[in-house]
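Researcher: I'm comparing several assemblies side by side, and this is the next one on my list. It has 906 residues spread over two chains. Same procedure as the others: predict the full complex and return the structure.
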Amino acid sequence: MPRLIPHVMSLTLALASASLGTVSGLAETLHIGQQAPDFTGADSNGKTVQLSELKGKPVLLEWTNDGCPFVKKWYSSGAMQKLQREAASSGVVWLTIASSAPGEQGYVDAIAANQDTASRNAAPAHVLLDPQGRIGHLYGAQTTPHIFLIDQAGKLAYMGGADSIASTNVEDIAKAEPYVHEAIEAVVAGKPVQHAVTRPYGCSVKYSS
Amino acid sequence: MTHCLLKVFAFFAFCLCSAASASALESAPFTTPHARVSLVSEIDGFDPGKAFRLGLRFQMAKGWHIYWLNPGDAGEPPQLDLTLPQGATASGIDWPAPYRVAEGPLMTYSYSDEVVLPLTVTPPQAAAPLTIGAKVTFLICEKICVPEEGALQLDMQSGHAAPSAEAPLFSAADRRIPHPSPYAASLLPDATLVVAGAGLSPSSVKEASFFPDKWGFIEDAAPQRLSLADGQLSLALKPAQSFDPKVPLSGVLRIADKEGAERFLFISATSKDLPAATENPAQHPATFAEASPEAGLGILTMLGFAFLGGLILNLMPCVFPILAIKALTIAQLSGHARGKAQAHAAAYTAGVLFSFAGLGVLLLGLKAAGAAAGWGFQFQSPVFVAGMAFLLMLIGLNLSGVFEISGRFIRAGSGLADRGGALGSFFTGFLAVLVATPCTAPFMGTAIAAAIAASPFATLAVLLALGLGLATPYVLIASIPGLVDLLPRPGAWMVILKQALAFPMYAATAWLVWVLSQQIGSDGVLAAATGLVLLGLAAWAIGVTQGRHGFAHRFGRAVCVLALLGTFAVLYDIAATPPALVTAKDEAEPYSPESLAALRAQGRPVFVNLTAAWCVTCKINEKVALTSEAVQKAFASRHIAYLKGDWTRADPAISALLHQHGRDGVPLYLFYPAKGEAPVILPQLLTAGIVLDQTGS
């Protein structure tokens, strides 16, 4: 009898892990106040950027796709660039992330990324190239733009849309509540963010299918 | 010739006449790279002061789509700015229900091909011809999104207001415009939508889905699991980060019947205040039938109870077959030295403790992931149940002597025989725990629940104490010198004993097949039975060719492999089988927070029985106590309502109720007195007397 056990045990383990696998296939949802998931990314100048090394300064993640009309609204109006410069002067490390898969809209290699930054006069600290969508999936980035703000202690302080009006109309930026601007101010001052979870709006992130 | 010409002429005249009776009323369209957009009117002339409908018509390029009022995870709905003449008013758009379209990991609500978005216009009292202007901006997407826009103008004359040639477009839109819901809708704290009303039943509803009208209620991309009972539909939605059960959930519910006919209903679901049941047990501690208050359990008491629970577990019907194997192993050892017996006992204990610790870690992991991890949850997966049935069948076939596992597979090198035996004992312990889990013994339930509510350390300590209790009988038999010597000498009786012990295995297999029938219906039973037959074939093929050489040996192996492949195909098929719809088959009304609240609101005392197909304790209690004549009579005379919650498959409402009362497994018996106080929790082993006493008030 005991001789049979090792053979059937492996079968049991396989079956058990299969059924448990279905239970544990839960999507990871981030919460405000939790430690932001650490990641390492390559930027457009070949440098490796690791989130945990930036602890001590607030870090802002901005998902982008230069062909998306919502992103174009923010960059053609100069509003995103203005936000980036204000953030930099407050000591926030701004990471623009491109998670579009090769062949999809918004995909950039290092050269194209730097050209984009220059041509639209953007001012991020780094542009991270994430063509496999690793960082995007880690954070559950859904749209471009989608903003995450991480405080000085490495905890998630804001996640959601660039502002309160989900449209492609440039005139709406002035009318909207500037959620990201407010979040940056709050984090820099060490205060809790009033609207910490807001609706992310934009085009879907073009992950590989 | 003239005859033909006349016919042709008559045909054309007929066409012209038909066309003339309904004139087209569509504005000049504007065309963008991906769409043709126009304004259409439902009637060809307006009556002064009488409302009529206009529609914004989109004819989209193939593969492109525009978005609904709530676009979902990405996108933007079209904007319409109307310029109306003096004195005219217009409503907002009456959005037809969209289609749920997945875009990668996102879910969006959109329209493709063609859609007409109707709105109602009330013209001024004057009969002068009117002009309606429209500025349309919209986002149209395929893989990429493009913002497009244009201007439209529609001129209308006052007239006899007959349906225009575009009226059929409005009828098509009407089929998808939602109606106010005739059913009551409510919202559970876990974002499950419960819709109740006559006309909802497993036979009349096949599919349902919900479109929220705003962001922030639910995770749009999460699957929406449907459960049906007579008069009720529940849709398990996944709450979003900003979900607040106090805010009414509004949107559109789509219901499809077996023929595919769809209905769309406006839903606004509010969370009802359930009396007493949702109150924090810490504020209103439920009175236990036993005297132990939940909050007061010290860690030592919990460990003590857990140990006792583990001992009692050995007696439970689903562990006993394993005990049978253990006894057989011990009997085989009776000819060995004492040390070997003790080593085996230690290995068995290690196996049990290891698997309890593993389960504890898993339970903690799942708790962290927020799943309603109930003890026995693995039995909620049909693939797991089928796999366990096959496993026990194989063991039974081996015990019956159909095939033997030759030792040479395991022995490699000298000294491995001992290790092989100890390893075998280790894995026997592992198997014992796996099969034991659904049978929650009386003391175990409270101890585990208290531990899980406490620190992770306490949870693991309690589980390890349970494991010790489970392993102790084996250790005792192996360690006490007298006991081993008392065991009979090996002989022919061992073979007979071995064959006899196959039958608890077959019985457990039969029970698991019954559990499977509850989960995936009679198709699942056929699949499982086929798998068992294939296993029998595989076992026989091996057994009959064992010891032979050459062709017979190879043929036997080949048949075995083919049969085993067939078994795996069956398992794969079972995994793909959809669950059998939860139906209220017997006279017992199914439990739902809705029905509980309704019955309590009527002032009736309610008895809730939470059970599951794989819970043997539950079945025994039902047979012995709950369906006994005395109890049935008492329920009738005391006007006690009886609700039965079947947890055979994961049910969030039942999981929530279990969790509320500090339990993570079934059975759970709750009696809600008529006066609206906190419920009485009955013990897990019932007699008719206990039930009558506790429901006597």
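Model: For your comparison table: The first helix of chain A runs from residue 5 to 23.
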